[in-house]
Amino acid sequence: MLVMTITDCPPQLRGELTRWLLEIRPHVYVGHVNARVRDKLWDKACHKIKDGSVLQIWNTANEQGFAMRSWNEPTYRVREFEGVLLVEHPTEAATVVTKAPVGDPPPTASPLDVPRKRK
């Protein structure tokens, strides 16, 4: 099973992908092809897309049951961590770390979340 999503692609590429895969939604393609065809479709999509992006997901025999790769995707990155594929979403808020003093509850805690002192 192969799933490909494409953004900002030329009409010629959409036509070439529909020779091998079904377009179930705009720019979302699904089908069952062998590894050679999968790699050829990947190369063709990466060479023909200028400003868009490509994501390809296929089933394989690993812990997750699938593998994926992306090209020219500005909003996230596919990372491998100890054999597991993860998606990293870089945000500015994630880089800012604030630390509350020890013993104080977090600023969004409700009164039920605050530990009570024993007498």
Which helices and strands occur, and which strands form pairs?
Layout (H helix, E strand, L loop, with lengths): L1 E6 L3 H7 L4 E4 L2 E4 L3 H14 L4 E7 L6 E6 L5 E5 L2 E5 L3 H4 L24
**Which regions are unreliable across 5 or more consecutive residues at pLDDT < 50?**
96-102, 109-114
Mean pLDDT level: 80
The major pleated sheet works out as: 5 strands, antiparallel
Named CATH topology: Alpha-Beta Plaits
Describe this structure in words.
It is a single chain. The protein has 119 residues and is α+β, with helices and mostly antiparallel strands. The chain has one domain: 2-Layer Sandwich (Alpha-Beta Plaits). Helix content is 21%, strand content 31%. The protein has helices at 11-17, 35-48, 92-95, and strands spanning 2-7, 22-25, 28-31, 53-59, 66-71, 77-81, 84-88. The strands form 2 sheets. Strands 2-3-1-4-5 form a 5-stranded antiparallel β-sheet, covered by helices on one side. The chain has a two-stranded antiparallel ribbon with strand order 6-7. Strand 4 (53-59) and strand 5 form a beta hairpin.
